[in-house]
Amino acid sequence: MKEPYEKPLIKKVQVGLSNKFGSVYGRHLRPEIDGVPISDLVSRFGSPLFVFSERRLREKYRQIYQMFSTRYPNVQFSWSYKTNYLDAICAILHQEGETAEVVSEFEYEKARRLGVPGSEIIFNGPYKPLSALKTAVQEGAIINIDHFDEIYDLEEIAEELGQPIKVGIRLNMDTGISPQWTRFGFNLESGQALDAAKRLVSGGKLILNGLHCHLGTFLLEPRAYAKAIEKMVDFAYELEDNFDLKIEYLDIGGGFPSRNRLKGIYLSPEVAVPPLEDFAEAICDTLLSKLKPNDFPKLILETGRAIVDEAGFLITTVHASKRLPDGTRSYVVDAGVNILFTAFWYNFKIELEEDISGPAEPCVIYGPLCMNIDVVAENVQLPPLPRGTRLIFSPVGAYNVTQWMQFIRYRPAVVLVGEDGQVDVIREAENLNDVVDRERLPERLILKKS
């Protein structure tokens, strides 16, 4: 078969040279994931395909848990369901000892269905329907209040059940980072958080026993967490001294970064992302320096991305290539932003299944959607890729399989490579029935068969 004709083009290409962004091109190859060949995975389960490594997931959790538990004696991790709520992923982390952190009745029900008792669930978020709050109260969940209206809802439930309810409140505060997530919880500096505590105490139906905060996402400044802990401990002792309360837990939330690369940051993750040990040290050292002797409230962490992101890979296949009018080489692959939603914010590591000869040049990778926004990678250095070439994107374990959408194309299968090399489907590829089963067509609109 003859190669298709391509008009000659003169375009300056720089390969292998350092530049002001600090990057040097080098081919990255990944012929297998945890010993399972990429070709075997695609032949069995198709492309595109999400692949998770059980070994990497367990190892990362254990590493992070050790970083904190060796520095502070009372630590509990609670798995952030919104980061990745696939049953298999959640089950692995619950086996490792994590409780569940949810932000909706859907996530709450998913955790309960999986077998997590209500007493091991933290219920956060700005929208908690009254019925969901009542269920959480009856099943003993930890509830962190987000706003004054939620106080009224919980007092109503307490009165109905005839019992006081233990609650925490979510705080927002200035820790020196921008933007501040002030839409969630009660502001500390303005006195709003103190007003909320006064309201709780005066009502007599709720017992304040915990403080919660969540500073943001993919935060690169450990000192922000140190400042948050400092302010939370000071506020806890203010509450205990003034209202005869006992703050039993401090929940610092999540937000730790993974080894991913934010768009706009040109340094490699190895340079730009602080080691997780820096976050553990900042939090625990500050906590121990601020607490009174023999006072060790439970430190809760809702770490999501930093635990699961690097355990996830996406295999995708080149379908077509073309030159854009400005001469840029572009490729169309079978995975788009409908399933790789975080492509809007991150420049992923892109690896080839096998080495391909030829000069590398800056390329753009488009997904399969008939939408101009379907760009999964820009300005990535690649050699000439034949049709059928497989690319592996990583890390993609966080948020993609919760934020993905059924748009234009079916969502693909997700598999888990076990520690023994066994490969299990943990979410089947979608088909037409999955999309239309909940649709209803009125009889008067049924098309007549010709």
TrEMBL record:
<protein>
    <submittedName>
        <fullName>Orn/DAP/Arg decarboxylase 2</fullName>
    </submittedName>
</protein>
<dbReference type="InterPro" id="IPR029066">
    <property type="entry name" value="PLP-binding_barrel"/>
</dbReference>
<dbReference type="InterPro" id="IPR022644">
    <property type="entry name" value="De-COase2_N"/>
</dbReference>
<feature type="domain" description="Orn/DAP/Arg decarboxylase 2 N-terminal">
    <location>
        <begin position="65"/>
        <end position="308"/>
    </location>
</feature>
<dbReference type="GO" id="GO:0008836">
    <property type="term" value="F:diaminopimelate decarboxylase activity"/>
</dbReference>
<keyword id="KW-0663">Pyridoxal phosphate</keyword>
<dbReference type="Pfam" id="PF02784">
    <property type="entry name" value="Orn_Arg_deC_N"/>
</dbReference>
<dbReference type="GO" id="GO:0009089">
    <property type="term" value="P:lysine biosynthetic process via diaminopimelate"/>
</dbReference>
<dbReference type="InterPro" id="IPR009006">
    <property type="entry name" value="Ala_racemase/Decarboxylase_C"/>
</dbReference>
